Amino acid sequence: MPKTSRKDFLTKTLYLVTSLSLVEGGFGFSSSLVAKEKLPETLPEGSKPVPESDPTAKALGFHQDAKHTDFTLYPERKDPGSKNQFCKHCAQYTKINEKWGKCNIISSGLVSSQGWCSAWSLKS
Ligand code: SF4
């Protein structure tokens, strides 16, 4: 087995440490960019989201995230044809920003653009 000189050892260690810090720094930088892009738009000041405990919201099977829909109660929501059924495409939705809007039916707060309820109808 060849002997490694102290100089070789230190050089290789320096390369390794430098490479690792660059990789970590690179990932950290790109992660922070991705995180900023994924940050949800905040609620407009003074507004609140519709609580899912709201009686109208409950009666309509509303969820702020359509993925949480009760598919036992609303199996049609799983149909491929309904994959774009979100509040943001609903006739009752008025956009406030990319994340939030007002619903003409559930008015106890704002609804998420990614929400859904059984009163959904396509915006014309
Ligand atoms: S009526 Fe439309 S906008 Fe209102 S909660 Fe239901 S799907 Fe969303």
From TrEMBL:
Keyword Transmembrane helix: no
Membrane spanning stretches: none
Annotated GO MF terms: 4 iron, 4 sulfur cluster binding; electron transfer activity; metal ion binding
UniProt record, GO biological process: aerobic electron transport chain
Ranges in coiled-coil conformation: none
Keyword line: 4Fe-4S, Electron transport, Iron, Iron-sulfur, Metal-binding, Transport
All copies of domain High potential iron-sulfur proteins family profile, residue ranges: 44-124
A Pfam cross-reference name: HIPIP
UniProt region (Disordered), positions on chain: 40-64
Role of this protein: Specific class of high-redox-potential 4Fe-4S ferredoxins. Functions in anaerobic electron transport in most purple and in some other photosynthetic bacteria and in at least one genus (Paracoccus) of halophilic, denitrifying bacteria.
Quaternary data: Homodimer.
Recorded family membership: Belongs to the high-potential iron-sulfur protein (HiPIP) family.
Protein name, per record: High-potential iron-sulfur protein
Source organism of this protein record: Leptospira kanakyensis
